[in-house]
Every structure is written in C-alpha cells, then in structure tokens.
Sequence to fold (514 residues):
Amino acid sequence: MSLLARAREWLDERFHWAEIVAPLEKKTVPLHKLSPWYFLGGITLFLFMIQVCTGILLLLYYRPGANEAFESVQYIMTRVQFGWLVRSIHSWAANLMILTAFAHMFSVVFLRAYRKPREMTWVSGMLLLFLAMGFGFSGYLLPWNTLAFFATKVGTEITGQVPVVGHSMMVFLRGGEEVTGATLTRFFGFHVAVLPGLTTLLILVHIALVQYFGMSVPPGVEERWKASPGEARQMKFFPNFFLRELMAWYIALGVLGTLAAILPWDLGTKADPFAPAPAGIRPEWYFMFMFQTLKEIPAKLWFLDGELVGILMFGAAGGLWLLLPFFDPLARGRGRRFIMGAGIFALSYMIAMTVYGYVAK
Amino acid sequence: MQSDDSPPAGAPRRRFVEVLLGGGLFASFLSFVYPVLRYLIPPPVADLGGDEVVAGKVGDLKPNGSKIFRFGTRPALLLMTAEGEYRALSAVCTHLSCTVQYRSDLHQIWCACHNGLYELNGRNASGPPPRPLEVFQVHVRGDELVVSRKREA
Fold:
C-alpha cells in the first residue's frame, strides 16, 4: 500500500476523512463559454498566499520606525541575498492581487453571480476587497519613502474630511495629528497583524459560502440549460477543475516572477517630513480614480466643500455597491438593465479616471 | 476525464510525459526554494573597528575600577588593577556568552549568569567557564587607551 493510501486510511479511521471530503468530490463546476471567469477568485487567493509567504520573509529583516524603516528596506534590497526579489514579488503580487480582485468583482457583476442565494457571498467578497485596499494603503507607507509619506498624508487627510467622525478617524489612523513615526508603527500593526487576521477569517467564510452554494451559472446559460437539460455540461471540481486551477496559479506565478525580476520595484528616497512635497505625488493606481476625481471637483459646490461632496459621493456609491444584490430582485427588466448600466459605468469611470490621472499629471 | 482509448498507465509515451511534467515542476520548485533559502541567511555583519579600538582615555579609570567597551561587534572589559595596571579582556563569558563584570570586592572577573569567576589574567578560576577569557593588549597612546588583539608570533 502506498504511503499516501496509508495516510488516508489513518485519517479515515480517526476522523471519517471520506465523509469530510465527500462534498468536495461531489462538487461540480458548470462548463460554458464563460467558465474561464471562475478562475479569478482562485488566482486572487493564490496571490494572497504569496503575500503571506513573502510578507513573512520581509518581516525577518524589516524594522518599523521612522529612523529605521527606509534603511531596513534598503538593507533588504542591497545586502540580503535575493532580498530585492522578495520585496519586488511582494509589491507586484499586491498590485496583481488588487487587479484580479477587481476583475473577479466585475465578472460577478456582469454574470450576475451575486443574485439570490449568494448575496452574502458578494458582501463578504466586497469586504475582502476593502480589506485588500487597506492592505495596499497601509503597506504603501512601510518603506517610509517620500512618495508614500505624502500619499499617506493626503489619504489620511481625506479621511479627516468626513463629517462628524472624520477628525477622530484621522487621528486614530495617524496616531496623532500628523503623519509621523507613530503612524508608521500603527500602519505596520494593521498591515501585519490586524488585516491578515481579519482577511484570513473572511476568506474562510467566503470560500465556505462558495462551497455551500456551488458555482453560479450565468442567467442566460441557466435559461438555455433549463429549456434543454441535455445541453448542461459540468466538470468535477476535484481533481479536474482543481488541476486546471493549479495550472492557472502556475501561469500567474510565471507572470509574477517575470514582472518582479524584469521590473523590480523602486524604493525612492527617504521621507523627510519637513521637506516640500515633490511633484508627481500620487497614491497606488487603485486609488487613482478617487484621487483624480477629488482633484477635479471645484473647491466650492454651491455652499458645500467640493472635497466633502466627493467623499460623500464615493461613500454612498461604495455603500450602494456593497448592497447591490439586495436591489437586484426589486428591479425587473428595465431596472436590471439599469444595474448592468451602473456596472459598466463604474468600470468605465474607474478606467477613464485612472488613465486620466496618469496622463494629466 | 479518461477516455477509453487513452494508453494504460505506465505506457512509455505517458511515462515520458509524466517525467517531463514532474521534472519541470520539480525544477521550477527548486528555483523558488533556492532564493528563499539564500534569503534566510543573514548577511555578514561588518566587524566595526577591526583589530584595534580606542577603549577610553587615561583618567577614565581609577585603580580597582573597570568599564565595558565595544570591541568589534562584541563587548570587552577594560580594568585597572589595584596596583594601577591596565588590563583588557574579552567580556564574553566562555560558558554561555553572558557579559562578565569586574568585581572590585573580589579583585576578580565575575559572570552573573552562572557564577563563573576568572582571574585578572583571564584564567577561569571557578564555576562553569570551560576556557580562559581572551586577553587583549593595552597601549597608552597620548591620552588614549588603545586596545588591540594580541598578534600571533
């Protein structure tokens, strides 16, 4: 008997392993021309695992603190063997993860995979996206370079504009009235302890929900399959889809490694809190559409602060977006087209504003 | 997904593909593990100061007094005997590397961790220390006390 079979038997005798994995073996993945979109969530998960591994590696040498952070990252990149590669992979994987998470989200919107009974899967996914952006925002500051310092200053200042609770939120984020070493310590704590814990928990919930409900079939395909059940195609999740997913991960790893090696992430210059902000201060690309919008809004709209209007608008849009699946049953025919339209508008707006932000300077 | 006309497991062509796939995966796995293993090895710390260091100034110490100074990356002990003679020794206990101190009451060097005692010439006198402390040379250069490693010759 092979070692694997013996291990399986050992587990089976004690934990009824076969019963535990039975649902996995029964699980199937619907096969249609839109099936490739099913891979995106898995790739995002894979990139998150890469982040955990490379993050732990970086922790071996990184030191939080205004006097040490920049130097320690410099040390990682110049003295530690393959340190430049580890940091570059961490940065690239972070960006690719946000990208695949956004792609995953929009694919769910356009395939209407969020509809009943998967509302909570959508909500948990959206919360994960917010957490991922929190990871990005907090991680951006950790090298303590000029670009990150001012981006954090601007980012937290925007938080401060929120009515009533804004100022307290800003002080909480900054660990004081200004962006200082105290901010760095906080962001470090969020980045390596609070966010990973929450995210891991929420990922488990998200995956459990996906397992529980199974894969959503796009409405068009579902109708066709209902009309002629003979046309319905599916694939066993394990091992058939699982192996394909592994292949997708392998390709993602290839892309990631290539990008990290060919375009290693820059460190920039050390932040100086008392130097004027240099030209070209900008946040990470996934905040660019908001950043650019706030830049374009005039200082005063009627009697309201322009900035404030922008923030409230993004807050409201984000809230509505989070609750998207709950509007879906209310809207029929025309209303549904309206939701699709809103999705297309959101995607085009984000792309256009991001491009504009990079071109306009 | 196995169709009926696929060759049985162990057929040469299938075996070849399996070896190719497995070998490729294994090789790429090695290429991930290798940088990580190298990354885990901390870079060597530059030995600051080299073989010679200014440990203090004449007048820093009184007879039967001592101070700890930095010699390269490790602590060292500079002391003045009751007779007014300078001595410099490694301050790293040969037992488990605690930092030793001069006991003016005993006229001996004492390690607080496990109660080890050394004579002022570095010899391990009592307690767990297995070897004597390394002894350095002290030169008075101007008003500076310069400590250097003894040259083997």
Remarks:
- Strands of chain A lie at 28-30, 234-236, 300-301, 304-305.
